[in-house]
Amino acid sequence: MRFHLDSDQTAIQDVVHGAVSSVLTRDKLHVFIDGNDDFEPDSWQAVCELEMAGLMLPEDQGGSGLGLVEAALVIESIGKAGAPGPFIGQLLTAIALSETDNDTARSAWLKRVASGEAVATFAFGGDWLPTGWTVSVEDGKASGEVRFVPSASAAKVFLTGTEGGGLALVEASNAVSVTPLKSTDRSRPASTVSFEEATAHELFPPGDDGVQRIFDAALVLLAADALGGAQYCLDLSVEYAKERKQFGQPIGRFQALKHQLSTMALNVEPARALVWYAAHAWDMKQEDAPRSAALAKAHLCDRFVEVARDAIAAHGGIGYTWEYGLNIWFRRSVFDRVVLGSPAVHRARAADLAGW
Amino acid sequence: MDLSYGDAAEAFRKDVRTFLKANWMPQSVEKADMKAYIAAFRKQATEAGYLYRAIPKAWGGSEQAPDVIKAQVIREEFGRARAPMEVPGNGMNMLVPTLLERGTDEQKALFIPKTMSGDYIWGQGYSEPGTGSDLASVRTRAELVGDKWIINGQKIWTSQGGKATHMFALVRTESDAGKHDGISYLLIDLDQPGVSRKPIRQMTGESGFYEFFFDDAETPASWIVGERGQGWNVSRTTLKHERASIGSAAMLGNQFQKLVELAGEMTRNGQSAIKDPEVRQALTRIEGWVMAHRYSSYRIMSSAIHDEEAGIISMMMKLLLTEIGHDIALAAQDLIDDEGLIEPEPAGTRGRGPEKWLDQIMGSLGNSIAGGTTNIQRNIIGERGLDLPRDLAMERGQ
Prior knowledge:
The structure holds 2 protein chains of 2 kinds. Chain A is an alpha+beta fold. Chain A has a domain at 209-353: Butyryl-CoA Dehydrogenase, subunit A, domain 3 (Up-down Bundle). Chain A has 11 helices and 9 strands. In chain A, the strands form 2 sheets. In chain A, strands 1, 2, 3, 4, 5, 6 and 7 form a 7-stranded mixed sheet that branches. Chain A has a two-stranded antiparallel ribbon with strand order 8-9. In chain A, a hairpin with a 2-residue loop joins β8 (245-246) and β9 (249-250). In chain A, α4 packs across α7 (209-243), α5 packs antiparallel against α6 (103-115) and α8 (255-283) packs antiparallel against α9. By secondary structure, chain B is an alpha+beta fold. Chain B has 3 domains: 7-86, Butyryl-Coa Dehydrogenase, subunit A, domain 1 (Orthogonal Bundle), CATH 1.10.540; 95-235, Butyryl-CoA Dehydrogenase, subunit A, domain 2 (Beta Barrel), CATH 2.40.110; 247-395, Butyryl-CoA Dehydrogenase, subunit A, domain 3, CATH 1.20.140.10. Chain B has 12 helices and 10 strands. The longest helix of chain B has 29 residues, at 277-305. Classes of the chains: A alpha+beta, B alpha+beta. At the A-B interface, α7, β9, α8, α9 and α11 of A face α7, α8, α9 and α11 of B.
């Protein structure tokens, strides 16, 4: 039995954290936040150079043969750093290309996506769930519009949800137009993407089991991002409580604040094992994997919102400023909560999946 | 990640099952003989190495090398067969580990075998009226007169107090020493004229706790564990042997399952309550927490197996369990609705309806208090887990 991180797994987190934080300084993140780009090449490059995008691919496809547990650790570090990405899209596209039966799509794009040569994002939209996806694909041409696509202007390929719940890989071209949205989450600005008979490879037909599997992986990865973000909000608040003095002593000595910080920690630390379990169940293709992914997504995204709010309260005035930067993570919590479906949506699904 | 126990553990499980099949046959035993049958069974299970694993053979234990997985397999298999495990209670949980670490050979020989057999039932004598969370402020005094300690004072919140034959107690023996340094750890025979007891009626109406009064009660001079003035330290001895367990996770899982069943039995808006969208949200919201608790338990157990520290998560499990218990209580109260206006018959009575959930609804409040209140738990997480500065009054030891 082994249900805590081993040294290889903690090394993954350390390496990703180190690589991102060395190129994405807080100043640089603030410049990005205040700018109009939807893609930050340095941190993206740093992560891709670690061969993280392909870490879940089998070794004969040039990957590391690792699982969603490890991918979740990578994304957790990304969430902690507040890095733009599109890392979740990149990982998901690599998994989808690895698991599809479409050899043409795989040989054309898998290597490029796994190596990071081509930026890949996800374009699901609709009401987020596969049943609500709307892009139509006919004779290798995709048409339709998808809202809330992160890093769309940099993407070479879009992992796209298709009508009836299928997945296609749509290539960027003149047939794809990107209209930036004014995004709440400044660290992951999104756009509306329109496909007008854009070149598309069908990866999974509507209703294929592979679709649900990719979607479940997406839920777990978003939960992992929320975990990393929540951990960062907690860390920053604890650090601040030790430094900031009022009435002649560090405010962390006051029991009221101490208890608030303990409550924040209680929101974060136990949830870690839930993310591990959901990822592990996915890796083992267990029957409870879809339900665990849904519950993990719902639980972690609620926790992140709560902890981000508490962090700002724990900081006092400075937490409410733009410059201090806590709002970057607060805004990420808004994104994580709704993207791929809100907690209420996934709890309703979990109740259905239990047969209640 | 690997949640399986491994081949060796599964082979061991087979052995345990074979043992239970051959040796635990309660259906063949007359009710009057049951007590003796259980005692004999425990002896066999100890000889087989399944019970009293932390206790040396010299004191009647099975003296097994610590093995968290084996311990878990034993719990699971004994649980499945409804076979008795070690004698429950504070004696086995608290006193015996303390004696093994700090007791004299005379004390071990005198107390361990009889505690294991259930002949000695121990009450914990820590809390006093007025001490609460500030445990080291105990005022019950003991004075050494000749070869006896003479004890005067009062103890409270002693569980199993009605049946207890003995008590391990924190008492003030060094009047001129500091708050913590003036305390000694004494063992007291409760069957003597100087000791009287009174049940405390709880908010549930039941009486699980007792108050004890000491009026020139006596105990032999040699019944002190550790040196004079070391009692505080002695009382904090814990046993690391196979301590990590997923027992509370299993218990919580069962409780949640029962809540789901309750939702299936009750009606709301003319249909089964479990079909109601609000109820479905409430249940799955709680389930997220239940799963977080369960897999954190596995995480802690896994760390113990690999001889690693699990860190801050191990300081959270009690509070987490308490908080989830409160969530379940609130959800149950909502589900039972006006059935909750009926006072339930005592646990174990046949034919209890949904009102039986009031046991859990009220009982969950006890968990916020017993074994370190919720506020103290938050202090521990903050100070030991997050390394926040200690409260000034606590730092001064006042």
